[in-house]
Amino acid sequence: MKHSICMVSDFFYPNIGGVESHIYQLSQCLIERGHKVIVVTHAYGNRSGIRYLSNGLKVYYLPIQPVYNQCILPTVFTTLPVIRNILLRESINIVHGHSAFSALALESIFHARTMNVKAVFTDHSLFGFADLSSILTNKILKFSLAGVNHAICVSHTCKENTVLRGKIDPSDVSVIPNAVDASVFTPTSTERDPEKITIVVMSRLVYRKGADLLASVIPEICSRHSDVQFIIGGDGPKRLAIEEVREHFQLHDRIRLLGTVGHSAVRQVLVRGDIFLNTSLTEAFCIAIVEAASCGLQVVSTSVGGIPEVLPPDMIQLAEPSATSLVESLDKAIAKRRNCQLLSPDGAHDWVRKTYTWQNVAERTEIVYDKISAATEVTLADRLHRYNKCGLVAGKIFIFIAALNYLLLILCNWISPVQNIDLAIDCRKLRRLKTGGVNLEQSS
To answer: Which residue in 116, 171, 215, 302 could disulfide with 241, CB within 3.0 to 4.6 Å?
Structure first.
C-alpha cells in the first residue's frame, strides 16, 4: 500500500540535530519505497516557501518565525488554514509529527485528526514528571496523543515514559530505534595518534548532556594517565566550565575544544579517537554513541534512559551518572585499549551496519502506516470522549478546543471550498515521465 505522507516538525534542515536527521533519512527511504513524502516546518531566517531536496523531497518552510529554541509560538488555531491547504493540495493521507517539543508537529496532528486524516507521532525524548515545565508539557502531550492513531518511540524506555505521560494504550505504541548511515561513519586507523589514547566527546555542552560531569572527570583521568588526551566537539553555556578546568589544571596540551562541529565533519573527529565518552543525564536513544561505534571507538557512557538498549556489552562500558563511576569505567576502557582487548574497529562497524539501517526503520514505519490505514476511522464523538478522559477540568477544556477547531474547519471549507483548491503536481512524476515505456526526459 502506497501512502502520501506529511512529516511535520519545528526541527529540520538547515538546523542540525538528531530529529532533523531522522526526518530526512526516513523520508528519503520512504520515497525510495514508492511513497510520496513532503516535509512541513517553519521558516529558517530567509529560507521560506517551498524547497526541493534530494529525490524530490518537497519541503514547506511556512512563513512563521520561531520564538524559543527553534519552536514556533503555540497558537492551536492560527495554523489550521495553512495546514489544511497543504494537506488538501498534496492529497495527504498520513500526517507524521516528530518531537514532543515541537508545537508545529502537535498542532498539525490535531488539525489532521479534525480533518479525519490519519496521524502518527514519534517521540524522541524523555521527560520528567515533577517539575512545572514537565507537568505542562505532559498535559499538552496527553491532549495531542488522545487523538493520534499510533505513536512511535525510539527505545523501550522511551515507550514506557511516553505511555505514562500520555496515558495511552501500550499496544498503540511501537518501538522503532534510530539508525545511522554506516557508509558515512567508517573506521580508519591512520588518523589516530599511536603515542596517545584519545578520548572523544561530541555533545552540546549543556547541563542535560552532563557537561558538569565531564568537567569533573577530565582532571582525574588526566592525573591518572599521562598519555590520555581529550578532543571535545560541541558548544554551549557549559563550555566555560571546561575552559576553567583546562586553565586551572594547566591542561592546554591535553584538552582540545573544537566548538560547534558540522554533521559532515563528525566522522573526521571521531576517527581520531580510541574511546568515545558520553556523560548525558537523560537520553531516549543517543545516536552519537552509535556513530562512534560505527567508527570503531569503544564507548563509555552513563547508564541512563534508553542507552543500555543501544549497544552490546562488548562495545560499551556503562557507568552510573556520577564522576566516580565514570572515572572507573574510563579506567577499564583505557586498560583494555592498552592490552588490545577491545573489539576490532571493523567488527564494531559491521555490527552497526547490520543492526541500525534506515531501510529497516522505513520498513517498520511502513507497517505502522499500513496498520492505521486499514483501521476503522474514529468518529468525532469518540475523539471528544477521549479528550474528556484527559482530566476533570482539562478534559472539558480540550473538548471545547476540539469542537471550536471543528467549527473553524467548517468555516475554512466555506471560505475556500475543497473543490477550488488546486492539487499539487507530484514532482516524482516530473523526474521520470513515461509514455508507452519511453522516458520523455531522455527522448527530448
So the answer is: 215
Q: Which residues contact 32 (CB under 8 A, 6 or more apart)?
A: 55, 362
Q: Measure the CA–CA gap between 60 and 48, rounded to whole angstroms.
A: 8
Q: Radius of gyration (Cα) for the chain, nearest Å? A: 24
What does residue 276 show for φ and ψ, rounded to 5 degrees?
-105, 130
* Helix pair 132-145, 156-166: axis angle to 10 deg: 90
Does the pTM of the predicted model rise above 0.90? Answer: no
- 17-24 contact pairs (CB < 8 A, 24+): 18/124, 18/178, 18/285, 18/287, 19/98, 19/99, 19/102, 19/124, 21/263, 21/287, 22/98, 22/122, 22/124, 22/178, 23/98, 24/53, 24/57
DSSP strands (E only) in 279-338: 298-302, 316-319
Helix, strand and coil in the chain, % to nearest 5: 45, 20, 35
Give the helix/strand (H/E) hosting 192.
Answer: none
CA 71/CA 77 separation, integer angstroms: 16
Cβ–Cβ under 8 Å, residues 346 and 296: yes
Q: Which three cell numbers stand for residue 113?
A: 485528526
Q: Which three cell numbers stand for residue 406?
A: 471543528
Q: Environment class of residue 246 by beta-carbon count within 10 Å: exposed (0-12), middle (13-18) or buried (19+)?
A: buried
Q: Would you tell me the crossing angle of helices 18-32 and 358-374 to the nearest 10 degrees?
A: 70
- Give me 337's grid cell: 585499549
Measured distance CA(10)–CA(202) in Å, rounded: 23
* Nearest CA-CA partner of 152 in 364, 345, 398: 364
Torsion angles phi and psi, residue 129, rounded to 5: -130, -10
Q: Which residues contact 177 (CB under 8 A, 6 or more apart)?
A: 154, 155, 285, 309, 310, 356, 361
Say how far apart CA 91 and CA 421 lie, in whole Å: 11
pLDDT tens-digit series, residues 249-306: 999 999 999 998 887 889 999 999 999 999 999 888 888 999 999 999 999 999 999 9
pLDDT in tens, 31-74: 999 999 999 999 988 889 999 998 889 999 999 988 887 788 88
Torsion angles phi and psi, residue 134, rounded to 5: -65, -40
pLDDT tens, position by position, 168-205: 889 999 999 999 989 999 999 888 888 899 999 998 89
Question: What is the per-residue DSSP string for 349-417?
Answer: HHHHHHH--HHHHHHHHHHHHHHHHHSPPPPHHHHHHHHHTT-TTHHHHHHHHHHHHHHHHHHHHHHS-
- Specify whether the CB–CB gap between 157 and 305 falls below 8 A: yes
